[in-house]
Amino acid sequence: MSNENPNPEESSAEAQSRFETGKAHAKRAAEEIKAAATAKAQEFKDLASARANEWREAAAAKAEEFRHAAQARAGEWRTQATDYYSTARDQARTFQDDAEVYIKENPVRAVLTALGVGFVLGILFRR
What we know:
This protein is mostly helical. It has helices at 8-105, 107-126.
């Protein structure tokens, strides 16, 4: 039996070598984790950007839809207003024509009616 004592310098050198190897492996693992995290972060950023673009496009489409609906409604209202204006104008012309005919047929009665209405209005506004 030989009593072999390990050489302390060899053990120290071997330990140093193992430490350096472990350190290198740990450094490589950290770099791989960092690269994977960076890739995931970029993937998340791209996904978030894509979602934001989708939402922006959807909002723009809805706004365009609302704009067209509002324009259509405004056109309907414009048409209605034009119709009401035309009807009111025609009725006013008809009333004016009827009044002119009445005045031509009954001039004395028209003048007396106008004087009576003026007198009553004068009394009412004086108070």
